[in-house]
Amino acid sequence: MNRFAASLTWYRRPNRTTLCHAAVKTKFSTLTSASRPTLPNQFLEACDEKNFDPSTHQRNDVSFDQVNGKPPLPYASACHEMGLSNNCEHEKEYKFSDRWIKLRMEEWQLDPDDYDILWEDVAKGNASVSMESNAPKRVLWSHWTDNFVRDPEKSPILFQYDKLVANATKTQEEQRMMEALYQYGIVMITGTPSATDSLPAEAKNPEWSELNSTITSKGTAESGILHLASIVGYHPLHTLYGSGVWSTSSRSSFYNSNEGTKDGASTADSAYGSTSLPLHTDMTYLSTPPGVQVFLMVQPASISVASTTTSGDDFQPKGQSIYTDGFAAARQLQKENPRAFHLLATTSRRYRCIDDDEGWHLEARGSVIDVNPRWRNRSNTHSEKNTDDGFIKEWGPVRAIRHNDLDRMPDLPPFDFLDHNSFYRELREAHEAWDDVLRRDEMRLVIDLQPGDCTLVANQRVMHGRYSFETMAYPRVVMGCYVGMDELASKWRRIGFNIP
Fold first, then answer.
1. Per-residue pLDDT tens for 211-220?
2. More confident residue, 167 or 388
3. Alpha helices of 347-472 — where are they, by DSSP H?
4. Which one, of 62, 58, 55, 45, lies nearest residue 19 by Cα?
5. How confident is the model over 125-134, as a mean pLDDT?
6. In terms of pLDDT, which residue wins out, 357 or 175?
7. Do 12 and 61 form a contact (C-beta atoms < 8 A)?
8. 230: DSSP letter
C-alpha cells in the first residue's frame, strides 16, 4: 500500500468552527455549482455541512496520522500518486443555510453599505436597518443629547435593569440589549443597583445615599455590574485594574487595604483624578483592548452651586460623561479628508502603560482606525476611486478604533522612510483632522449620569471622556468592569450578528 492510500484510513479531526451551524435555527438548502452565488467553488465545497462534526462543530475533513499526527502528502502530489484527477469542475451539491450564505457574502464583499447606516437616515425612515442576511446594521449616530437617550419613546438605547432580571422579560430584553449594543455601540440602563459597602461611611454623600435607597432593584452595585457583564460577555475581564469590579475612587476599599490593593489592582490612571478627560478608548496598550466597558454611576460629584443643565450659559462642569461614536467619526473623516483617513488607518502607533507600584509595563501597537481593506483586481479600474495624488480610496467597514492620546507614545517613521519632515507633517495634519471631527458638539453625547445609571460601551467603537469636577468632601464614584472583545463577539455571533 502506498503512503497516500494508507492515509485514507487516517483519523479526520473536526475543528471548532461554527461555520455551518449558527445558533439561529434555519432551514438548509441545496446549491449546485451551476446555481451557486459568486462565492468560490472551493470555499463552498470545503464548507459543506458534511465536513463538520454535528456535536463539536469542528472540521472532520482534516486528515492526519492516528499515531504521530503527521499531515498527509500535499493534495496534488497525493492525487498524482493515486492516479486521481485534480479536476473539480464537475457538478457538485453543497448544503448550507440560506442565511449562512448571505452572511459569508457580506463578509467577503466587505461593502461598508452592507454593514453601516447613518442615524439620520434611520430617523427619517429612509433606509433599512438590516442586512440582506437579516442581521442588523450598525447605526452610525451623532446629534444625540441627554434628553434624547432618556426618552423612552424615542431612545433606541434605553433599558431598565428590572426588566433585564425579571423572569417574564429578561430573555427578550437581553437580546434586544445585545442588538442595540451591536447597532449603536452603547446602551444605557437605568435603575441599576448602586448601593455599595466598598466606600467608607464618611465618603458617602447623604443626598445620593438617600436616592440610592429608592432604587427598587435588588442587590448591590457589584452584583448589578457582574450581572450585566455576564449578559454581554459571560464574565469580567481580568486586567491590571483587578479581576472583577473596579472603582474610580481611590477611597474605595478596593484600594485602601493595609495589605495593598486587591488583586494587585492599579490606580495609575488619570481616571482617578478630577481633571477633564479627552475622548479615548480604554487599554490601547493591550494587543486586544477590551470589548465592553461597564460604567455604573454610584455617586456623582458634589457641586458648590446647584445646576442640572448640560448646555447654554449656565453650564457647570461636574464630571458629566461624554461619548462619541468612533465609527461615525471615522466615516466623517473619510468623507472630508480621505488622505487623513488613509494615514490613520495604515500608520501603526505605539501605546504604553506603566505602573511602578504594582509592577506593570504594558505596550501594544495598532492604527487609530482599524479598517478592512477591499482588495480589487487591477483590471477592475472602473470600481477604483482615486484622489488627485493617485491614492486608492477602497476601504471596507471599520473594525475598531484605538485612540488615546494620553497613552500614545511619540511616533517613529519607518526605517526606510527618508523624508522625516514629510512623515511628521502629514501625520500631524491627519491627527489634527481627526481631532477636528472629535471636537464638534454634534459628535459628542453629554450625559449627566445619576445614581443607578449604567452605560455599557463598546470600547473598540465608542470613545468616552468626561468634564472636570471639583474635589469636595464626597468623591465622585463610578464603578464598573471590562468584558473581553472575544467574549462580546461570541455573544453577538450566537444570535446571528455579522462582524466584519
1. 666 677 788 9
2. 167
3. 420-438
4. 58
5. 78
6. 175
7. yes
8. H
The rounded distance, in Å, linking the Cα atoms of 279 and 248 is 17
Nearest to 47 by CA among 18, 24, 87: 18
Task: Give CA angle at 456 (452, 457), nearest 5°.
Answer: 140
Burial class (CB within 10 angstroms; exposed 0-12, middle 13-18, buried 19+) of 57: middle
Torsion of CA 452, 455, 456, 457, to 10 degrees: -160
pLDDT per position as a tens digit, 311-345:
445 678 889 999 999 999 999 999 999 999 999 99
Mean residue pLDDT across the chain: 81
Give the type of residue at 289. Answer: P
For residue 477, which phi and psi values (nearest 5 degrees)? -125, 115
Q: CA 456, 462, 468 angle in degrees (round to 5)?
A: 85
- For CA atoms 32, 33, 34, 38, the dihedral sign is positive
Q: Please name the residue that has the C-alpha cell 502530489.
A: 77
User: Considering the entire predicted model, what is its pTM?
Assistant: 0.82
Q: What are the tens digits of pLDDT across the range 383-400? A: 444 444 444 457 999 999
Cell 472583545 locates to 485
Cβ–Cβ < 8 Å for 231, 177: yes
- Residue 133 makes CB contacts below 8 A (sequence gap 6+) with 99, 102, 103, 105, 106, 496, 498
**Radius of gyration over every alpha carbon of the chain, rounded to an integer in angstroms:** 26
pLDDT at 83 over 70: no
- Alpha-carbon torsion, ordered 267, 269, 274, 280, to 10 deg: -140
Give the Cα separation of 108 and 58 in Å (integer).
22
Summarize pLDDT for 413-462 with one digit per residue, the tens.
Answer: 988 888 999 999 999 999 999 999 999 999 999 999 999 999 999 999 99
- What DSSP letter does each residue of 332-368 carry, written as one string? HHHHH-HHHHHHHHH--EEEEEEETTTTEEEEEEE-S
